[in-house]
């Protein structure tokens, strides 16, 4: 399969190394809509889960969405179609909301969805010179949000183009000069993840890992533990379900709780963070442990991207040299900003809301180029 690197976009050139790199083997486009429960009841599987589907099923769901859309006064469109994926959400947030130079390593298809991904990410000044364009389809996901803000996802990934660990899809030149590599755990891309970590460590980068989902942790726990125990993961993000799932079945731990999981992660990572939804987060660095409450939970419209944008804020704090508690507070502010509207992309109005929240708490405001 042929591939070509896209030229750099936004305020970075191909020669400038972004401070933060995100690895997302497959570019992804999200179709996000608020829908009533009658549509969710028609879908196989449980509400709130994520079950892979074929392209025909994805297209069928999209064709059924319109009559079931729950419209809100502030909605201009019944459905948002935007660049998606956990890493892309975090990278876009870091660049757009915090002014941190970011790039993405991955592959997109030479189709309409690939063009949309490129357009959306480049409009937020994300460097795309490490994004390979390949012949074939770009991954897609339908994200259906119910009246309570909970999301049900149906991704179509199997036939999508993706980065390969072989050939020249990953090179040392991609990593040279950057400071952070962001990853999301996934068994389908494990070889690429391992190869990227190896190169990143040779080039002196810090590595951040998000645990993805409790299902991923449960089903593929052994290789995850190997990654953590390697000592190559500097920062680990886990939500409460993922953190407790990591310990369940380990050393007889049947009643694993987030605090125990935090201690476990901190044994292997310099920074460990467990997000607790409406209860905020806990984090540990060295001997320091902090607890920070959630911000903005009362106005939750859609939980999509909450953990991803929390990571954006936390990483902004780290690169700016803020304290552990301040990193968590910024993360809570940015995580709270994205849940106020539909999809994993923060609106300009909600960035302004976040800056006000940061200012109220005495946090260092970012300098974001206009």
From TrEMBL:
Keywords attached to this entry: Kinase, Transferase
Domain Carbohydrate kinase PfkB: 80-344
GO molecular function term, any single one: kinase activity
Coiled coil start-end: none
Family designation: Belongs to the carbohydrate kinase PfkB family.
Protein name (Swiss-Prot/TrEMBL): Carbohydrate kinase PfkB domain-containing protein
Organism in which the protein naturally occurs: Malus domestica (Apple)
């Amino acid at each position: 399969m042929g591939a070509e690197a896209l030229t750099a976009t936004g305020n970075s050139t191909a020669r400038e190394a972004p401070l933060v790199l995100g690895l997302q083997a497959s570019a992804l486009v999200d179709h996000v809509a608020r829908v009533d429960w009658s549509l969710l009841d028609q879908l196989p599987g449980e509400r709130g889960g994520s079950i892979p589907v074929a392209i025909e099923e994805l297209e069928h769901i999209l064709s059924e969405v319109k009559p079931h859309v729950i419209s809100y006064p502030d909605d201009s469109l019944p459905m948002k179609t935007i660049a998606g994926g956990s890493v892309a959400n975090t990278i876009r947030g870091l660049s757009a909301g915090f002014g941190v130079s970011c790039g993405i390593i991955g592959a997109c298809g030479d189709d309409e969805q690939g063009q949309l991904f490129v357009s959306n990410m480049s409009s937020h000044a994300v460097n795309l010179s490490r994004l390979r364009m390949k012949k074939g389809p770009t991954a897609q996901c339908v994200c259906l949000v119910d009246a309570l803000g909970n999301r049900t996802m149906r991704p179509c990934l199997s036939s999508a183009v993706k980065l390969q660990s072989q050939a020249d899809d990953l090179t040392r030149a991609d990593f040279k000069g950057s400071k952070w590599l962001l990853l999301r755990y996934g068994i389908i891309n494990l070889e690429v993840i391992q190869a990227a970590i190896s190169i990143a460590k040779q080039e002196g980068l810090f590595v951040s890992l998000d645990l993805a989902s409790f299902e991923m942790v449960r089903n593929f726990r052994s290789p995850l533990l190997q990654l953590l125990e390697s000592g190559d993961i500097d920062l680990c993000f886990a939500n409460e379900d993922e953190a407790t799932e990591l310990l369940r079945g380990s050393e007889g731990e049947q009643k694993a709780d987030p605090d125990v999981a935090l201690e476990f992660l901190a044994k292997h990572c310099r920074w460990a963070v467990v997000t607790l939804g409406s209860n905020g987060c806990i984090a540990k660095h060295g001997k320091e442990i902090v607890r920070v409450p959630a911000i903005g939970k009362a106005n939750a419209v859609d939980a999509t991207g909450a953990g991803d944008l929390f990571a954006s804020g936390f990483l902004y704090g780290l690169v700016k040299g803020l304290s552990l508690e301040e990193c968590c507070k910024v993360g809570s502010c940015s995580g709270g900003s994205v849940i106020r509207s539909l999809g994993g992309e923060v609106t300009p109005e909600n960035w302004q809301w976040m800056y006000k929240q940061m200012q109220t708490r005495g946090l260092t405001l970012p300098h974001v180029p206009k």
